[in-house]
Amino acid sequence: MSNKTILIVDDSISIRQVVSMTLKSAGYDVIEGCDGRDALTKLDGRKVHLIISDVNMPNMDGITFVTAAKKLPAYRFTPVIMLTTESDAAKKAAGQAAGAKAWMVKPFQPAQMLAAVSKLIMP
């Protein structure tokens, strides 16, 4: 079975490291972006099976990034998990409107993260 690739977008290096280790330990390949603008450059046509994105980031926030990613034909159906400290209902609604399938609040449990990933990841 070929590995599935997950794009992690977060301006916090430590969060990216924890998420990356969690996913790699479960056999996923990981691409990292330090903000929405950087992450868009990583969506260059390669297959990405899932995106995990923070909401509050410099340069381009997560909701703007997801909206932009969903406009790219290759990534229109790529599932998105928002991983954020935000629990505000309006932010959540904006995330869903942009195309996010799940909302996970930091700090997260690795088991909870992997359960959400395995449920949402594209075949």
UniProtKB/TrEMBL annotation:
It holds the Pfam family Response_reg. Keywords: Phosphoprotein. Gene3D superfamilies: 3.40.50.2300. The modification 4-aspartylphosphate is found at D54. The keyword Phosphoprotein applies. PROSITE patterns: RESPONSE_REGULATORY. It comes from the Bacteria. Coiled coil: none annotated. SMART domains: REC. SUPFAM superfamilies: CheY-like (SSF52172). This is Response regulator. The lineage of its organism: Bacteria, Pseudomonadati, Pseudomonadota, Gammaproteobacteria, Pseudomonadales.
